[in-house]
Fold this protein.
Amino acid sequence: MGMLSNPSRIVPAEGQFIEKAAEILLEASLASFPTETVYGLGGLAASAEAISALFSLKGRPSSNPLIVHLATTEQIGDVATVDSPLIRGRVEHLYRLMPGPLSLVLPARKDRTVPAVRAGGDTVAVRIPHHPVAQALLTRVGRPIAAPSANRSTRVSPTRASHVLDEFPFAGLIILDGGPCDVGLESTVVDLTPAVPIILRPGSITKGALEAALGEPVVSLTERVSSAKNHQIAKSPGLSTIHYSPRTPFFLKHQWAELCEKPLKIGWISLSQDDTPPISAAETRILSARGDLEEAASQLYAVLRELDEYGLEAIVVGEIPGHGVGEAILDRLRRASGR
Ligand code: TXA
Ligand code: MG
């Protein structure tokens, strides 16, 4: 009860605080920790109490399942069924990309996670993060930890400890400070259960990297939307459009161009300095001076959060190439624009 009235606090990601966070998690309370993608809000995957607290703190719809975090690939079999040769083969091929920014949707062992983690479904998403603090914490806890991004539902994911504090100032959370996240975008989510694996959420691990590791074709959810099997969409409600949004009206450059009445006080975000704003901008941010997409991905959410505080009439983002991690950046930008 006291939890919601107590201030949250940022603590250094050192031994004693990792130990403290582990104890909190083992008591079925929540704690926030860094991963290489974004900060997570952890809770014991087998505890109904912890998972219910997670959903209510985030304001997350119960239809949106959570990713279960593990310390090692050997633990995948603790929460998922990998005995079919097809699934086992796929998981083993993907060992070379794990630990890392990759989440696998697999048939669930239903007795190992509470139904809410799976949104009542038959599959479970698993991820083994490689961030040293996440690794130390998961190893110490020794049990599967469900960890959505540590933001209120529909908001931009946190890539700094201070972002988590801004999201949940009075949730009595301890927030392990691991500095800025390297990747800065949420993990690639790939469903390994269908005949052809499907990317449900693009991330820094690209379709090409997955196909190379798996040795078989993979489809992106967007390629499937028009096909008959579009019931798959309902499987990953995190892919709904109103997601990852700043409060300030948000546009991609081409959407801005189509606006009839254009706001005057804009914030401009571009990949490099070569891309200039359509009108003079009140605030300008460049994601990567050298136009590097990975650096841009790592900066994007922090820049969105920062510009959201300026009382701008609109935020407009310039050209982003769609190759490599650019695909995931564009995916998040389209969602942020809700169009
Ligand atoms: O990088 C990440 O994955 C971060 C860090 C903390 O690890 N976590 C994260 O969790 O982004 P969250 O809850 O914000 O996003 C989970 C995504 C959602 O799009 C959800 O719908 C999808 O994973 N998901 C989870 N379980 C699923 C399942 N069984 N089937 C299909 N999609 C699932
Ligand atoms: Mg999220």
